[in-house]
Write a structure and sequence with these properties.
Length: about 200
């Protein structure tokens, strides 16, 4: 897609994503977003009613993307481990700034109204958390995983990945395959020595 094929809302989302990820939601004004994107403030407000609406649009678009990734790994089938591997590989194949949207969601939630947090929380759970929980639950049903609290296990899995959602840590990741392999080993096999 060429630059001329990008719609104004897409340009705004891209520019605002960069600013929010690199500088933080609360540090950026709508005026600064308008200037960065090359649109008037009135033009910006034509597409997004306020900064909260803009952040929610960014987060929702990213969750739509994550949902498609999860659908793809689940449709590919295979073991629970291969599906989780596919998800991790897809996430880590993204540019660091894209991965940072997950971090942005958790860091900036308190900046949003209670209604917006509740609305986003439902979408986040439906498109992301519940999908991972379903993969793990099916793994337990097939006897690939021992019985466990899938909600807690999902958050532990995401917790291992979370440090790599910071663009500043991208260089520390090194070869993504090595980090993914170690996270999978710790999650599925444990870190202890067998007796």
């Amino acid at each position: 897609m060429s630059a001329t094929d990008v719609t104004m809302p897409e340009r705004i989302l891209e520019g605002a994503t960069h600013l929010f990820v690199t500088q933080g939601y609360h540090r950026i004004s709508m005026r600064e977003i308008a200037e960065a994107v090359g649109v008037s403030k009135a033009g910006l407000y034509y597409h997004f009613k306020d900064k909260e609406d803009l952040l929610l649009a960014i987060l929702t678009a990213y969750l739509d993307h994550i949902e498609r990734l999860l659908d793809g790994v689940q449709q590919a089938g295979g073991s629970t481990r291969s599906q989780v591997t596919g998800l991790m590989q897809a996430i880590f194949a993204q540019a660091p700034e894209q991965r940072a949207i997950i971090r942005l969601a958790s860091q900036e939630m308190l900046q949003l109204s209670q209604e917006a947090r509740a609305r986003f929380g439902l979408i986040y759970h439906q498109k992301f958390i519940a999908q991972i929980e379903a993969i793990l639950q099916r793994g337990m049903s097939r006897g690939e995983l021992r019985p466990m609290d899938v909600h807690l296990a999902t958050w532990i899995l995401l917790g291992m990945m979370y440090p790599f959602f910071y663009p500043a840590h991208a260089n520390e990741l090194g070869a993504p395959a090595a980090a993914i392999d170690l996270m999978l080993e710790v999650f599925f096999d444990g870190a202890g020595l067998t007796p």
